[in-house]
Amino acid sequence: MDFLKGSSCPFCEQSLDGIDLIANYQSYFSKEYQLLKVAIANLKARIEELDSEAAILRLSQAMDRNEELTKFWLGFVDANGPTLDQSKVQGARSKLVIEAMNLAEAKLASPLEPMQPSDSFAIVNSGFGSAKQAVGDYNVRIGALSDRNIG
Fold it and tell me: Tens of pLDDT along 46-79?
């Protein structure tokens, strides 16, 4: 519909006056475009929430609680406790949020343009994947300690 300027067909230059189909297309695509922009704005807002002070504090508190509970329970078992580098996890999360925000802002500026994640996003996403794996490994080791203590 971007090609349509005035009341003539941009290809054959015939008049489009009185053709309901054109008005219907314009209405439909205008609504769909607005819905797309809203969806992108909502995505951007969800990414911003991930970078809010409250979200950062919740993650930090959860990791601190886990560390305290691990230290407490290690007093009852003969084992070394697993460790998790909280700063590495927080740093990976923070970098991913920044890269995702950059992508969301670029998409919001050009909603109809196809986008590919940048090389920097791929690198940061890989780093986040490594941090996520470290958290998973930590949880598995905690589970193994728990099973050993219960069993």
Answer: 999 988 999 889 988 998 888 888 888 888 777 7
- Say which DSSP state 80 is in: P
CA dihedral 21, 22, 26, 28 (to 10 degrees): 10
Domain that holds residue 95: 20-150
Q: Which residues have CB under 8 Å from 26's CB, separation 6+?
A: 1, 4
| Chain CA centroid to CA 138, Å | 23
* pTM for the model: 0.70
Phi, psi of 8 (to 5 degrees): -120, 150
Q: Is residue 6 part of a domain?
A: no
HSE-CB at 51 with a 13 A cutoff on CA atoms is 16
Handedness of CA 92, 97, 100, 102 (dihedral sign): negative
Position 59 in a domain: yes
Helix, strand or coil, per DSSP, at residue 77: coil
